[in-house]
Amino acid sequence: MPLFNVYPLYNVTPVSGKGIYVYDDKGTEYLDLYGGHAVISIGHAHPKYVEAVSNQVAVLGFYSNAVQNPLQVELANKIEQLSGCAAYELFLCNSGAEANENALKLASFKTGKTRVVAFDNGFHGRTSAAVAATDNKNIIAPINAQQEVTILPLNDIEGVKKELEKGDVCAVIVEFIQGVGGLDQGTTEFFETVDKLCKANNTMFIADEVQSGYGRSGKFFAFQHYNVTPDIISIAKGMGNGFPIGGILIHPKIEAKFGMLGTTFGGNHLACAAGLSVLNVIEDQHLMDNVNVMSEYFIKLAKTIPQIKNIKGRGLMLGLEFDFEVGELRKKLIYNHHIFTGGASNKKLLRILPPLTVGKDHINQFFEALIEALTEVENNVIAN
Q: Exposure pattern of 336-359 as b/e (b: 16+ CB <10 Å)?
């Protein structure tokens, strides 16, 4: 049976990984500066992660949410400890899309309203309401388009105010650093004013931290760079270091009711073991400190390369913007220099999302290869 052909694939077949590197079926080593869309947070096959998942699957991999699961409580307490989000409550699911779907559903339950405000170039997932709030008409099917969503320009404070004062908006959802959209960020004034507007208009402020959370921005959550208090925080990608897990942190003013949310696989024993191991490594190896040090070093080197026209993002969620589309450059990096990087809806942007364990030697390796790859691309242009 053939696979449903929805992914354009590079001709690379990874079969193993260790730390910042992956290895293909021919034994070639690749520097992974993309982490599978920011999923690999503590490095491939980290020994603490392998030990935790192996030990848990050997005793109990799964049972439903109809019984007590102390690992969920332990995970919730550890998230609270490291994030500083005191008094929030945790609901666990399986992915970022599901996290945002539940966040939007919960906002509608709480407010009794139906409309959502989202922003240009935002990406929130591919499920029904999450994809409707995503600024990409190509992935919104007619059944999704029935959702009531208004998409505004980022930083449009007056637009948000006007929409919220209409009285039918249940949620404003925003990425504090856009991922797929190209690493754009709102201003401090924008985020802090929107937070106040939501509170004044009985609207839930949802921080989509699916990609920017778990230390990637240099703080545990990207919204913590601002003076805001989200009502709901969605999390996923770096949460399980590759094991499927997601969730939402819910402000205590939102009261739970039996049956309001639910999931079969969410918060299972194996997922919780994986999630706990990630948090323990982030804490024990001081990875948020490493994020800030490595980010500063990366940006310093990036500023020395004249072809880079703009450096976007924060922490280890970075983008290098050029004055040409980077598709060919990414191919040179992966095939000629064996380095994984990412793209974005902004075709001139190279996305860098390495494991939080990345070191200066890895960054040096990348920039040496980038300089060579830029020369190769320029020579191709001249030749053609």
A: ebbbbbbbbebebbbbbbbbbbbe
Instruction: Compute the CA torsion angle 58, 62, 68, 73 (nearest 10 deg).
Output: 80
Burial of 151 per CB tally in 10 Å (0-12, 13-18, 19+): middle
Taking a C-beta distance cutoff of 8 angstroms, is the pair 244, 271 a contact? yes
* Tokens read off for 360: 């200066």
pLDDT in tens, 312-330: 999 999 999 999 999 999 9
In the structure encoding, which two tokens stand for residue 62, read together? 């799964």
Half-sphere exposure of 31 (CA within 13 A, CB side): 24
Superfamily in which the 14-46+286-383 domain is placed by CATH: Aspartate Aminotransferase, domain 1 (3.90.1150.10)
Rounded-to-integer distance, Cα 89 and Cα 255, Å: 10
pLDDT tens digit string along 145-182? Answer: 999 999 999 999 999 999 999 999 999 999 999 999 99
- pTM here is 0.96
The full length of the chain comes to: 384
> What's the Rg (C-alpha) of the chain?
21
